[in-house]
């Protein structure tokens, strides 16, 4: 058995061998605890019939754990300086493909057909760069990539927002957008000490499992997210006030807005944070004909 990459000593050796220095702008924090990696992989429930997409493999600490358990791993790395490092550290694993590309620019449908056509089950497992966590998750959801779930390390505060319930301080448009498609739960909290360099924030591993059907039927998903986002423009304001500001011609159509809210049994004086995902879905459907531009 090869020595794990994810120990402080081996990580140091690899970085020194390749003369690698961390780039703050890329949010690089490498994991140096094999137990944490083992836990992440066990939450993903992988088998040799599973395909995995990884984002930001770094020097391959998580990648090697994935390669040992999954059938195929495709890892997207934006930092060209890490390609020779990964070529070295991943040489024992013939089921790993590293793609030098920003995941946000990638054609994910193409990736699925190129690498995973024989896998029924494809999951995303990643220690995400914290500054792009939300855009990455939303890209997979909005582009309808046929993944069954995501196991992702992120800033704990973001994980709290994604899993938040209506009526709580953390609940907002991000909770709604993700819970519309996925069941979300925090699998584990991860201390700062298992990273090098140590991040300034607490981390959590979030498990997202795709719902068989979205929480509610909507005419237009983008409009649902526009309405939910608009309802939180100023958290302390009522939904009618926020929608007047955020929807096209909202101020001119206040009476129509009130009428639409009442038609789906939503009191205009409620705050956005009290509405469930299902209520937002009903509301966006009611507003669609008159307010989608």
Structure description:
With 293 residues, the protein is α/β, with parallel strands linked by helices. It is built from twelve helices and nine strands. The chain has a seven-stranded mixed sheet. It has a two-stranded antiparallel ribbon with strand order 1-8. Strand 5, helix 6 and strand 6 form a beta-alpha-beta unit. Helix 2 packs across helix 3, helix 6 packs parallel to helix 8 and helix 8 packs antiparallel against helix 9. The N and C termini lie far apart (59 Å). The mean pLDDT is 93.
Short key terms for the protein model shown above:
293 residues, alpha/beta, 12 helices, 39% helix
Shape: elongated
Mean pLDDT: 93
Strand line-up across the major sheet:
4-3-2-5-6-9-7
First and last CA, distance: 59 Å
The fraction of residues in strands falls at 15-25%
The percent of residues in helical segments reads 25-40%
Q: How large, in whole angstroms, is the Cα Rg?
A: 21 Å
* Total beta strand runs: 9
Helix and strand pattern:
HEHEHEHEHEHEHHEEEHHHH
Q: Number of helical segments?
A: 12
Summing up helix and strand content along with how strands pair, one would put the structural category as alpha/beta
Sheet having the most strands: 7 strands, mixed
Low-confidence stretches: none
Give a brief rundown of this model.
39% of the residues lie in helices and 18% in strands.
